[in-house]
Amino acid sequence: RATVNGYHDHNFLTIHQRLTDHLGEVAPMGQARQRMHRVRAGRVVLATGAHERPLVYAGNDVPGNMLADAVSTYVRRYGVAPGQKLVLSTNNDYAYRVVLDWLDAGLQVVAVADARSNPRGSWVEEARRRGVRVLTGSAVVEARGSKRVTGARICAIDLAKHKVSSPGEMLDCDLIASSGGYSPVVHLASHLGGRPLWREDILAFVPGEGFQKRYCAGAVNGVFGLGDSLADGFEAGAKAAAEAGFKAVAGSLPKAEKRIEEAAVALFQVPHDKGTARAPKQFVDQQNDVTAAGIELATREGFESVEHVKRYTALGFGTDQGKLGNINGLAIAARSLGISIAEMGTTMFRPNYTPVTFGAIAGRHCGELFEPKRYTAMHKWHLENGAEFEDVGQWKRPWYFPKNGEDMHAAVARECLAVRNAVGILDASTLGKIDIQGPDAREFLNRVYTNAWTKLDVGKARYGLMCKEDGMVFDDGVTACLADNHFVMTTTTGGAARVMEWLEIYHQTEWPELKVYFTSVTDHWATMTLSGPNSRKLLAEVTDIDLDKDAFPFMSWKEGKVGGVPARVFRISFTGELSYEVNVQANYALGVWEKIIAAGQKHGLTPYGTETMHVLRAEKGFIIIGQDTDGSVTPDDLGMGWCVGRTKPFSWIGWRGMNREDCLKENRKQLIGLKPLDPNKVLPEGAQLVFDPKQPVPMTMVGHVTSSYMSAAMGYSFAMALVRGGLSRIGERVFAPLADGSVIEAEIVSPVFYDPKGDRQNV
What we know:
Blueprint: E1 2-8, E2 12-18, E3 34-40, E4 44-46, E5 50-52, E6 65-67, H1 68-77, E7 85-90, H2 96-104, E8 108-114, H3 122-129, E9 134-136, E10 138-145, E11 149-158, E12 163-164, E13 169-172, E14 175-179, E15 182-184, H4 187-190, E16 197-199, E17 204-206, E18 214-216, H5 226-243, E19 283-285, E20 290-291, H6 292-300, H7 306-313, H8 326-337, H9 341-344, H10 358-362, H11 379-384, E21 388-392, E22 395-400, H12 408-421, E23 423-427, E24 432-437, H13 441-448, E25 461-467, E26 473-483, E27 486-491, H14 496-509, E28 517-520, E29 525-531, H15 535-540, E30 556-562, E31 565-571, E32 579-585, H16 589-599, E33 605-607, H17 610-619, H18 655-658, E34 669-676, E35 688-689, E36 703-711, E37 716-724, E38 733-737, E39 743-749
Parallel strand pairs: 4-18, 6-14, 7-8, 7-14, 8-9, 23-33
Antiparallel strand pairs: 1-2, 2-3, 5-15, 10-11, 11-12, 11-13, 16-17, 19-20, 21-22, 23-29, 24-27, 24-28, 25-26, 26-27, 29-32, 30-31, 31-32, 34-37, 34-39, 35-36, 36-37, 38-39
Helix pairs in contact: 1-2, 2-3, 6-8, 12-17
């Protein structure tokens, strides 16, 4: 129950083993359902066999049309008869095996339609001796029936002219078996880029040049006879073993009976007297409903490359990877274009050979192995000082620092008051940081941010929003100008990789003419944020930078030394307090952090975590992407129209989407503040909001709570929410019906609760 699903460079193979799938949908306790083996082989022998090809004829999708081999398998392996009266349509000797199996089971063979003019192979003659009617130079042109096969129309065909050459006859049957020959399973051999080669003698593709140390044996090599396959396999195995360092072992091959066999004739699509486009549908890829008419249409539309035909029709797109339909489809396209199948070529096959579950791929790579934990440079200090952590974008971020048995609420209240009244320090190293350089860096920023960046001076920083094409906000952050052609962009912690990928996609696919380069430097820089009224006094003790408010104004940055280490210091604030973000090379960060901690004792320095950061920023009405946004809000919905450059000469990403009719409606959900009438009740985050609490269920939901906290600095609970038409409803009431039957009433207010004029951050 294992399949080699991928053959990779340097003879590396992946093997998908289905351990307990046959026992039920759920594996027995203590057992795994599936396992992925990773094998590095010295030599590889590909003995992958061949698939029988169906014939393409009208009505071949009606239930009761089967491959000849499939019918034999039902009869011989499972003792099941898929019908009572069989008709076989074939172009080769091997398909006659189903006729003999059918007769051995005591069932009726109505007739065999053989496209060859005078077949005389051993199995053909045995079928004749047993009374089977063999119609030569003929094929099943059309299957009749609706919910199952009821008959088969057999006509004489002219292979050279691809025409029906007789009126034919209708035979009563309930099962049609077809066989158009065999296609070697070249998929694994093609995984490494080797192009399959067409062999006219066997009417099939075989593996091309091997780039690895491998051999092919048996049917995949175009060797179909049993005796010949055994000899081919023995030779390949002996060579591979010897080259892998094993001693040669003498052996003898089993004897195989020789049969008289006649070559197959080329028949991939059976002609119809009405022509392909007018005949009943002739299916080539039954998984994707690709028809012969569809393939011919593709070539008439000008799609001549095999890869283009594949994408026009979806031929071979399904999970079977073209195992049944590809050769027939290529042959139809080649005939339509007037070229040979060899000239047409085949599509490339890729892993996986058969579908593989994500569970098997992940396998042992679960937990820390599948999703690595990321630590900041100060993680050791956080552990030693009792931090509780939360996972943010794989990072372990300090959540809060409990003292003397404090629960989270008590610790967060203490940390919030410390920042508002003295000074706090936050490890903000996890923020995404992208170094952007190049002569077109400013132009690129103009196109990806909603606001203008052309005139940002060196030494200054600016807050910006990014929107997707639909005009919806998807990330934000501060970007600083380090030089005329050099910027450093910060992103949300969880969005760093997403933003980096987004920038690269737009540069490579939409604006490749812009000379701009991106480098992720998130891990290179550690960030320590000092916030609070005493932050300037504290930082002055460990830096040589002039921190005077006129020399170092809000939204600017300077270089200097902090704790004796070269640093970039940004004066920006996510708390609404006087704040400085100290960035140093990550290897030196712990030492700088400890020096700041030591110097901060007399200033009331308190370390704080992400939960306190959330409360502080919410008091100021600052958003968190992914919490106060959900992919359905524009900058205007957030009340951040001030951050939109409406007169920029270039339509930035999202401008058109933001100006769609639906995005300009007045009754959209908009970000507002909520002040519960009971100051001690905290609205649950995610709570649905209504205007009429007495409305019977289902109530009309008008929004939901995005952020909600108890404020130690203000002395009451507060929340932020998205409410329909919220910006025009300031002063009105809204209600939150809860699951326990209670209702919390709140007033709609401005989302900026604390220091609305921003005096504290500008001191």
